[in-house]
Input
Amino acid sequence: MVSSYGEGGKILAGGQSLIPLLKSRLFAVPHLIDIGRIEGMRGVTEDKKEIHIGPLTTISEIESDKVVREHLPALGDASSVIADPLIRNAGTVGGNVCHGDPSNDIPAVMHVLGANFVLEKTGDRRISDVENFFVDTLQTDVRSGEILTGIVIPNPPERSGSAYLKAEKRAGDFSLAGVAVYLELGKGETVSKLKIALTSSGPKVMAVDGLYAIIHGNTLSPDVMGRICKRASSVSRPVDDVHGTAEYKRNVVSMLTGDAIKIALDRAKGGRR
Amino acid sequence: MMASIIRIKVNGTKKRVEVEPRELLVDVIRDKLGLVGTKVGCETSNCGACTVIVDGRAVKSCTMFAVQADGKEITTVEGLSKDGELHPIQKAFVEKHGMQCGFCTSGMLMTAYWLLNNRRNPNDGEIKRHFSGNLCRCTGYQDIIESVKHASRLMYPKEEQIEVSQ
Ligand SMILES: Cc1cc2nc3c(=O)[nH]c(=O)nc-3n(C[C@H](O)[C@H](O)[C@H](O)COP(=O)(O)OP(=O)(O)OC[C@H]3O[C@@H](n4cnc5c(N)ncnc54)[C@H](O)[C@@H]3O)c2cc1C
Ligand code: FES
Ligand code: FES
Output
């Protein structure tokens, strides 16, 4: 059905992004295709290697899911700070990533957790990795006729941890900036892997590169932490607006980065992943 | 665009309603079913005046198409009282002055209904978090929080600090 409407059909999941957009007349579409009743696309399951998330799982369900809380705490953190509980009761995780809004909180988490996106249309199935999935503002790798049918995340190993923090002006607002962190501990207190991605900090979710050179073989000393935070804020490309100047928002990124790393580190040490 | 028929259960009664695909649930509730207790405040998913329960979850009915509710069970503020008797949540809002102008109140009651059906003894922090999608321009919220706590005591008089999962 989605294929047969091609460009003239738009998928409707929870509608929490799409309906406001349609109401604002910024966007119009001849046909909406409600996928909300497809049962097989809901819920979170895990095996040793991977965690599978149905795109129609609501953000509220993600927020209270045991597997998410235990293995993907950054996703739990992000889900609990999106909009408000009533919007989270209707909005879906798939809609949050497919919308491609750089202010949506879940894409940054997907980035650091190394998610893969399963895209299907009649007679065809392909995987889009997180590096390629987010293309530009309101643009993702979902092509005409395709549905996101699954999100697959590698099950994080022991001694790893993740966290997501966002700064907002009022409860329920989109963020001034948000930071997702994933890290793995190596020998002793050293960090063997560190991934950071930013929300509301550019035209799309911004992955922070150049981290390996800073961390390799190092512990998270104050000096190393300072360099990581500086790197994150230099990657962010915010704009001046009523919520704050670009410079202010870069400082917010730096501060959130430090705090999120500390939480992820605690989780990695505590055996909680 | 062709109209379609949806089948919904509203406050316990089965209804067949003819709707256009573009119609919002809140407009169907108010204009077609005549249940005007549900309010429209902002129409931009911010204020929560339009909050109703759909299949056990509180949602903003201004941000849902009526066709998305097909086959579902809906509770509006009119469904709270039974046989002319106010629901304990309504009594609590009266007794603790949880309203002034009343415009936000039906939405507040529905969010309270959702919260208290899932958590019997919410603390202040939980109440604030659950109500972050319901705006009130009059009360300053304190009396609303007090009303919700009072409602939890009226609904579950013998309850210890028991939590049921969401
Ligand atoms: C007042 C308000 C505040 C908000 N605050 C935040 C916030 O702080 N943080 C945040 O992250 N979000 C926020 N949002 C946005 C919202 O929470 C999410 O973006 C929303 O949940 C998206 O999910 P949905 O199911 O409602 O998507 P929909 O609105 O149904 O769809 C969004 C887009 O994704 C596409 N789509 C959906 N599912 C699929 C699929 N399976 N396959 C292919 N394409 C698909 C649709 O075609 C559409 O383009 C806010 C929204 C509102 C109204
Ligand atoms: S009218 Fe629906 S949230 Fe304000
Ligand atoms: S009582 Fe007036 S808006 Fe809440």
The pocket of FE2/S2 (inorganic) cluster (ligand 3) is lined by residues B 99-104, 136-139 (CB under 6 Å). The two ends of chain B are 39 Å apart (CA to CA).
